[in-house]
Every structure is written in C-alpha cells, then in structure tokens.
Amino acid sequence: MLPLNGIPTPEDIAAVMPTEERLSKGPVAITECFQNIPCDPCYHSCKRGAIKAFTDINERPQIDFDKCNGCGSCMSRCPGLAIFVVDATYSDSEALVKIPYEFLPLPRVNQIVTAVNRAGEELGNAKVVKVQNTKAQDKTALVWLAVPKNLMMESRHFLVKEVR
Ligand code: SF4
Ligand code: SF4
Q1: Is the minimum distance from the CB of 46 to ligand 2 under 6 angstroms?
Q2: Which residues of the chain, if any, have pLDDT below 50?
Q3: Ligand 1 residue neighbourhood (C-beta within 6 Å)
Q4: Domain boundaries, the chain
Q5: Taking every annotated instance into account, which residue ranges of this chain make up the domain 4Fe-4S ferredoxin-type (predicted)?
Q6: Mean pLDDT of the chain
C-alpha cells in the first residue's frame, strides 16, 4: 500500500493505464503519480496538450492518451520520476519501456541489465536500447529498455550489475 511502503496497489495502477487498444497503436506515457501533491511541471512540459489542465495544483495528472505520442519530454520534468513511456509495438516479442534514471554511471547501449518491478523485485534480463541525457533534461536521463512483452507493465527500474 503506497502510504505505508511506497508500492502502488493493482487498483492504483489499473486506474492510470491506457487501454489495450491504445497500447497497440504505439508509445504512450503513463503517469504513476498516486498522491495529491502540489506539483504540475508535467502539465507545463507537454507541448501536445496531452496532460489535461489542472484545476487545482494538488490534483493528480490525467493524460489524454489519444494526444500523447510517447515523446517522453514530460518524464525528465517530473521531480517524482513518476512518468514512464511504454511502447508495446516495439517488436513481436518485446516492448520498450522508457525509465527516468538519476544514478551514475549511466548504462551503455546494448548493456544487459536486470529489470525490477515497483517493489524492487528482480524480473529478468532487459537490454538497454537507448540512453537520452541532453542538457535540457537537467541530469534526469531516460533509459530505454527492451523487455519481454509480458513484463512491460511490471518493469519500472533496473539494476546494473556490471561495473565499468
Ligand atoms: S510523453 Fe510527450 S506527448 Fe505524452 S504526455 Fe509526455 S510530453 Fe506529452
Ligand atoms: S510532475 Fe510528476 S510528481 Fe508532479 S504531478 Fe506530474 S507526474 Fe506527479
């Protein structure tokens, strides 16, 4: 339960998920932001107007999944690292999950890491496909992971076992 251990419930997660139909159309953002807090940079960062306007800054964000193209711009603006992008169309067997990441060293492209779930439990191997770390992102990198499709809604962080 989130207030006690920081882990959202299945009901929390279900409430913010896009439909299967939307997932089948390509990358889309998911805001796993489950508490009412005074915060709205995600709204201001989305140039497509896909994050609905807040009437109260304490509201939780709501995404118009039809307007979102999964660009990920909002991810590095979120101080809670609570936004992820999932692309279920990456390949027949794998999905892409974009993960906000503020640890060093950054992983390398093609590196195999261990995907973990929201509770920090290991799920299995994942491959780093891309690392975005521009100046505009202000040290919140986006790491694109290719994961087996059945783990795309569970993979929300990763462990780097190899030390450079
Ligand atoms: S991923 Fe891009 S289009 Fe989607 S909500 Fe974030 S900034 Fe907007
Ligand atoms: S920026 Fe992040 S923490 Fe703040 S309201 Fe948006 S999703 Fe939640």
Answers
A1: no
A2: none
A3: 29, 45-46, 48, 50-51, 63, 68-74, 85
A4: 2-159
A5: 59-88
A6: 96
